[in-house]
């Protein structure tokens, strides 16, 4: 199965936003620190998420991003789709030219699997993930780590 870093990072970042947003804009720098995803990569992902209407941006001091819809209205599949990722178990990326330009013997099996995975992820919302105890525990740990990084003293060397 092919789910690349782009899809994984997009889901991770928007889930972070859903967990920490609570009505206030969240900066990409904060998400970057908590999730260890580069800021420039997050900027690319959030541009796509904004174009697809999953997040909105707030400019200026205290600005950042907010979810554009309630967490219960955003599925994991919609996030992956928004960043132009496909959940594809076929070797041919769904084109059907997997065996010297023609459909291979198991193409339809893998294509069906891709559809089942997409349907599964389409039924899981950010709201459901937010309420999972394991997600809550990890989010608290990440926030504690980010808070420790924020208070580390700056050491100047001559």
Automatic annotation (TrEMBL):
Q: Keyword set for this entry?
A: DNA-binding
Q: Which GO terms describe its cellular component?
A: cytosol
Q: Which GO terms describe its molecular function?
A: DNA-binding transcription factor activity; double-stranded DNA binding
For this protein, the record's SUPFAM superfamilies field holds: Winged helix' DNA-binding domain
Q: What's this protein's name?
A: HTH-type transcriptional regulator IscR
């Amino acid at each position: 199965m092919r789910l690349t870093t782009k899809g994984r990072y997009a889901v991770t970042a928007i889930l972070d936003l859903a967990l920490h947003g609570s009505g206030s804009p969240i900066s990409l720098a904060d998400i970057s620190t908590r999730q260890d995803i580069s800021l420039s990569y997050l900027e690319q992902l959030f541009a796509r998420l904004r174009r697809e209407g999953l997040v909105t941006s707030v400019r200026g001091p205290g600005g950042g991003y907010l979810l554009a819809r309630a967490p219960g209205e955003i599925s994991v599949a919609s996030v992956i789709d928004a960043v132009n990722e496909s959940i594809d178990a076929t070797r041919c990326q769904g084109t059907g030219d997997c065996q010297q330009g023609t459909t291979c013997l198991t193409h339809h099996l893998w294509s069906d699997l891709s559809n089942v995975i997409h349907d599964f992820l389409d039924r899981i919302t950010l709201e459901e993930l937010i309420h999972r105890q394991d997600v809550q525990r990890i989010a608290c740990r990440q926030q504690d780590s980010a808070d420790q990084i924020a208070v580390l003293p700056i050491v100047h060397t001559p």
